[in-house]
Design goal:
The chain has about 350 residues and is α+β, with helices and mostly antiparallel strands. It is built from 8 helices and 11 strands. Helix 6 runs parallel beside helix 8 and helix 7 packs antiparallel against helix 8. About 15% of the residues have low confidence.
Length: about 350
């Protein structure tokens, strides 16, 4: 599509899912706001062209069905209880592979992609030393949210990442420490009051739990400590140290060293929440997603190799809005609306 090529030539880009995003770059808040407006205008045009292509495909399919009648071809009965179950003859209409802008679901999916991208793309970075001699970084994202990162300590290296939304409301507060006795610990307090704690003792024993704001408590499952999000993602996206086969998610001075130079940053809370989401399966998981989505929150989960993927890889129309979407174009499809993150974690792990 030539329109996509024209967009890609400028400060915006079009993903494989036909969602218009802002290219990562350092910029002012005013510039980011202007590019958001430009992206919305370009998205409207891309959607118009995308629908035109879809209509052409539908017309071709209808013509083929009509021609088939002369050869006694019978199209699938939409009223049949078996409609939608592929018999192996490929007589079921294929599902949408990208968000369909003709539907509310498709428009919401596009919005989720944009929101996620805005929340994880760095537009400004500032490094400084505070009055106590601690090294600090402030990362401001395209959506106006920001990470306040600090590191200190020689005998017990410590790192914190306090994440605020664009209005200054706390999203998450992460603290990691490598103790002088060989133990390691990480704790995350989410904005809703949910707290996740993780400990690795000097002799390698692992322990962890979740406490919700209303006092419910849950124990982290063994699978959590071996989850690929903790062993493979790491690096600049989440600032989590790459773990051995078993370990706790840990933020170290080394893993935050180059964060200010990165184009994307999601923060350690997302990596931990992703692992929790994937390792706990229960009805409460689905319920938590429903509750989150009612507040326009999406959920990203799944395994990744250098980038957070998602749990499912099915066509878009086959996936309910309340569970993770399939990854497309190398982006994290779906978004944690971060104010709901703690509630999701608490409901998943701390069953009633």
């Amino acid at each position: 599509m030539r329109a996509a090529d024209d967009i890609d030539a400028g400060e915006l880009q079009v993903t494989d899912a036909w969602v218009v995003l802002i290219k990562p770059a350092r910029m002012s808040a005013q510039k980011a706001a202007q590019l958001q407006e430009d992206a919305a205008k370009e998205q409207a045009e891309v959607n118009r062209l995308l629908l035109a292509v879809g209509d052409a495909d539908d017309a071709t399919a209808a013509a083929m069905f009509a021609a088939g009648k002369d050869f006694d071809f019978q199209p699938p009965d939409r009223n049949s209880p078996f409609y939608g179950q592929d018999s192996g003859k490929h007589d079921v209409p294929p599902a949408d592979e990208v968000p369909n802008p003709r539907t509310l679901q498709g428009l919401m999916q596009q919005g989720m992609v944009r929101d996620q991208d805005m929340a994880t793309t760095v537009r400004d970075s500032r490094e400084y030393t505070d009055q106590d001699g601690n090294q600090r970084q402030t990362l401001t994202m395209l959506d106006g949210s920001r990470h306040e990162i600090a590191k200190w300590g020689t005998y017990d290296p410590s790192v914190s990442d306090i994440y605020y939304d664009k209005n200054g409301t706390l999203i998450s507060d992460t603290f990691s420490q490598q103790r002088y006795d060989g133990a390691q610990s990480t704790s995350i307090r989410f904005g809703d009051g949910t707290t996740v704690t993780m400990l690795r003792t000097a002799d390698g024993k692992l322990d962890g739990g979740v406490v919700t704001a209303d006092g419910r408590h849950g124990v982290l499952p063994e699978e959590f400590f071996t989850h690929p999000a903790l062993t493979q993602v790491g690096g600049a996206l989440t600032a989590l140290e790459k773990q051995s086969e078993r370990g706790i998610p840990l933020v170290t001075p080394q893993t935050v060293e180059d964060i200010g130079k990165t184009a994307k940053f999601a923060g350690p809370a997302l990596g931990v929440a992703t692992a929790l989401y994937d390792t706990v399966t229960a009805t409460t998981l689905h319920d938590a997603c429903v509750a989150a989505f009612s507040g326009t929150a999406g959920v990203a989960g799944g395994e990744g190799l250098g980038t957070l993927g998602v749990a499912l890889a099915a066509p878009i129309s086959e996936i309910p809005l309340v569970i993770p979407f399939a990854a497309m174009g190398g982006n994290i499809l779906g978004t944690w609306t971060f104010g709901y993150l703690g509630g999701i974690v608490g409901n998943v792990v701390c069953r009633p």
